[in-house]
């Protein structure tokens, strides 16, 4: 088990991404994925109020609604739910009134009394940061949120948030959610990780499998076919990208582990990372994700993958 930052949230070091629920996974499939994840020891689920408003016919909140229905049906013990505010079509931005209204709407969809981990999804330059920090603090004070976090914030803005929280006695963030994986490292490692180390924050990286490229499924630029998620992945099938996939395959073979499991295990070993986020559109994909949380790579294996990834940065 891993603790998220300086919170009291202890989790298996893997987060199940809820972005596919209501998008590439319908209700029955979403339930099957969640069942498989929980049955395998998974206990950390990540979503956002805006998932999946981009799908024709959706209006936002579909993922939270499905997770809420699953929670009500299964009543699982000790599951940590993370969600985010600022992208729902009805609740855009991070003004105090919007943060409060969006949190209440998320609580209703999820059917929980408190959100375990609540992220500011994207920075809002139109709203004074002091107002946003105060709004999150009020949610914690009122028992609607247990811990606060930030996603897609620059190092400078994370420092500013922490400074404002410290000076006002507001709840400090415990986690940061950046775009981070074997083919997207440089900015996170040079800017975000140092801030996380300084303030005891945990990283919970999204795009941990680079939209599926780090599963080894997309080895040619035309491999995406008609998949709505795979276009970006197939574009990473450069010579350097494919050399990285080969290295992942060879390291994984020594552990009888898949390419995806190995890529996630590497990410889990990076400084300040608590739990990579990975999603599954089918229940049979969950086992590889869970295996990553228990796969222990040697220092030499981590170094080999880091070296292979250096030439494959997107």
Report strand %.
5-15%
The largest sheet is: 8 strands, parallel
Quaternary organization: single chain
Query: What's the helical proportion of residues?
Result: 40-55%
Would you mind describing this structure in some detail?
With 314 residues, the protein is α/β, with parallel strands linked by helices. It is built from eleven helices and twelve strands. Strands 11-10-9-8-5-4-3-12 form an eight-stranded parallel sheet, with helices on one face. The protein has a two-stranded antiparallel sheet with strand order 1-2. α4 (129-141) crosses α5 and α8 (239-253) packs across α9. The longest helix is centred in the N-terminal third of the chain and has 15 residues, at 96-110.
Describe the secondary structure blueprint for this structure.
Layout (H helix, E strand, L loop, with lengths): L1 E2 L6 E2 L3 E3 L9 H13 L4 E3 L15 H13 L5 E6 L1 E2 L2 E2 L3 H15 L4 E6 L8 H13 L3 E7 L3 H14 L4 E5 L8 H14 L2 E2 L27 H5 L3 H15 L5 H10 L8 E2 L7 H7 L6 H12 L4
Parallel strand pairs: 3-4, 3-12, 4-5, 5-8, 8-9, 9-10, 10-11
Antiparallel strand pairs: 1-2, 6-7
